[in-house]
Amino acid sequence: MSSRDIVLGRIRRALTDVPREETPENSPVPRDYWDTHARRSDAQRLDLLAENLADYRALVHRCPPSGLPALIAELLAARGARSVVAPPGIPADWLPDEIERVADDPSMPPRELDALDSVLTGCAVAVAETGTIVLDAGADQGRRRISLVPDHHICVVRAPEQIVDSVPQALARLDPSRPQTWISGPSATSDIELDRVEGVHGPRTLEVVLVSAADEG
Amino acid sequence: MSGTYLGMPSFPTAAAASTRDMRLRGNLRHATHTIRAKREQAVAELGDWQELRAAGAALKERTLRHLDHYLEQLEDAVTAAGGHVHWAQDAAEANRIVTDLVLRTGESEVVKVKSMATQEIGLNDALARAGISAHETDLAELIVQLGDDLPSHILVPAIHRNRDEIRDIFRSKMGDRGRAAPKNLSDDPRELAEAARLHLREKFLNAKVGVSGANFMVAETGTLVVVESEGNGRMCLTLPETLISVVGIEKVVPTWQDLEVFLQTLPRSSTAERMNPYTSTWTGTTDEDGPSDFHLVLLDNGRTDALADTVGRQALRCIRCSACLNVCPVYERAGGHAYGSAYPGPIGAILTPQLRGVGSELDASLPYASSLCGACYEVCPVAIDIPEVLVHLRERVVEGGTVSVRGRRTTVKPAKGHAAERAAMRAARWTFEHPRALRAGMRMASHARRLTPRRLPLPGAGRAWSDSRDLPRPAPESFRDWWRRTRGPDAGSADSGKAEVRERGERRDGGAR
Ligand code: SF4
């Protein structure tokens, strides 16, 4: 007998108390928890996202669509970044000419990726109540490793359409067959005497740009 | 004690040793109190916490009651998505499967992200015997591994180490396993974290094989979920070519939607955050993104025996948030090592004896490592009634009975007169001789009387007494509280923890129970 059969056999013997007529679906699960913890306007949702991102030490910037390229240029210049990995879905005019744009190339050795200054991505969805951005390897987000290895991550969120209130709403929008990374602030550890230190292995600086037509002046 | 829990002394012996260690106690106290204050805030932010808790418990219950169905569904989904599924009856088989998989890649090093299942089975030692070095990559696990000792807390495994000790460990040991720490390394946590970043980055960038556990596996879609803070998990899950995940069979949840419950309760209950910094999900393999070879090892190792016990089964709902450790007066005194397994604290006291049986002195003593105060139940995000299971396991130690051992119904004899009984008695005595632990216990009991067992199953001589007499019900106000109320807060005790205990107790008045 295979181990598979043995383990499944043990499980079935262990569950003899479960009535025959009980199916997985009719084993009751109360779902009276909430879909969202408040009703919010688009503007309130955007503000809450900004607040919660900042609370977990992401650097938050806001701009209208027309101001995006200038803001990105400014953020890169402030760090002295010269090389930026950007997936194909990032429009060419988002990056200034003097910056070396590096493609998201699966054959690139991790060490080369490590030598790049920054990464620029979009996101699949953002969660206001938790201050989370979710990347799902879409065309403007790229492979998982590009938002991991470089030390500086700029992530662009389009408001209001990419922002949801809550975790349940985010999951409903996402496709589980795509690899996902949920990011809530830069990486952190409290392993040494519970002192929080930001940035252990992921990008130590996370900048989130919230782009909203409502901010058009 | 190089990385193994075998042959550990029984709970009271180990606990007595660690209560003598003032530093460990100070650190633990600071850690548990800090985390639990923050946690209360994070939980209070959600007005539907009790509903989420009820849903989480029910979802896990549904899964456990139909575990065969969900595991088969999971296996199909993972396989369809390009992954390979292996089944392991016990630790030895799981270790053999992983070792073979690593050897097949021709590699002699693997990077690991913290996983309690691999700790439970002693995977690192098994790999070492096959000439494979496993590098732990969580900061705390790295400290533990370099310091050649054992984790003491689920969430902050190196909580028993101070910063100056960590600096010394990094300075003297990092060089042996790769990039050395800078000579002038200070004990500033920032510098220590930076040293770890540089040391481990070398490993990540070269890694060909990653080993992980998982917090959840979604039966419907075959998706695995890893919840973490530092980013070492993402490194291990995405940079290597081969990924091997060792996961207990109880970690399955029915649907993708069900994650909406646990992704809300786990971070808040665990690290007291709205959301942890990083959560990774993956389904089989993805072309040119992450590992091209994915293996899932489904681990039984005693879980089906726990499943067969209709009272003990609920321990398998655990999502390893560690909230129960942080509120446990006995854990705070005894420290994590005293529990002698990968699972410390209240959850360890009910899980370990079920996974391993109550045959050894240590395992027979664990159900007594509690004052039955019920605080662990109240914080548990999947509503595991830990006191109920403890009482049930005490009965098993004392009276014996029919249990499942490796899937076979077996009758165990009462521990009466055996070494196990003596260990259990010592544990009970240890708990009752620590006034603070007991006081917190009695106080909680009076606020949550339903939790108190009607009969106190004491072993041996005490048993006749407890069999024939109902345990006196706790008075609405315990004697100690009355004493303190009428004599003022400083009466009769030099225990600095009392204000805190009082505050908790008061908030419990009229609470959920
Ligand atoms: S038993 Fe409950 S509180 Fe304790 S670690 Fe498990 S889920 Fe958390």
UniProtKB/TrEMBL annotation, chain A:
Coiled coil, from the record: none
Domain LUD: 111-211
Xref: InterPro entries: FTHF_cligase-like_sf, LUD_dom, NagB/RpiA_transferase-like
Top-level taxon: Bacteria
SUPFAM superfamilies per the UniProt record, alphabetical: NagB/RpiA/CoA transferase-like
Pfam families given in the database record: LUD_dom (PF02589)
PANTHER family: LACTATE UTILIZATION PROTEIN C (PTHR43682:SF1)
Identification of the protein by name: Lactate utilization protein B/C
Automatic annotation (TrEMBL), chain B:
Residue ranges of the region described as Disordered: 449-513
Keyword annotations of the record: 4Fe-4S, Electron transport, Iron, Iron-sulfur, Metal-binding, Repeat, Transport
Domain called 4Fe-4S ferredoxin-type: residue spans: 315-384
Residue ranges occupied by any LUD domain in the UniProt entry: 71-298
Positions of the Lactate utilization protein B C-terminal domain: 393-485
Biased composition (Low complexity): 454-464
Basic and acidic residues bias: start-end ranges: 466-488, 497-513
Pfam families found in the cross-reference section: Fer4_8, LUD_dom, LutB_C
GO function terms (MF aspect): 4 iron, 4 sulfur cluster binding; metal ion binding
Biological process annotations from GO: lactate metabolic process
Entries under NCBIfam families matching the protein: LutB/LldF family L-lactate oxidation iron-sulfur protein
Protein name in the entry: (4Fe-4S)-binding protein
Organism per entry: Streptomyces nanshensis
Lineage: Bacteria, Bacillati, Actinomycetota, Actinomycetes, Kitasatosporales
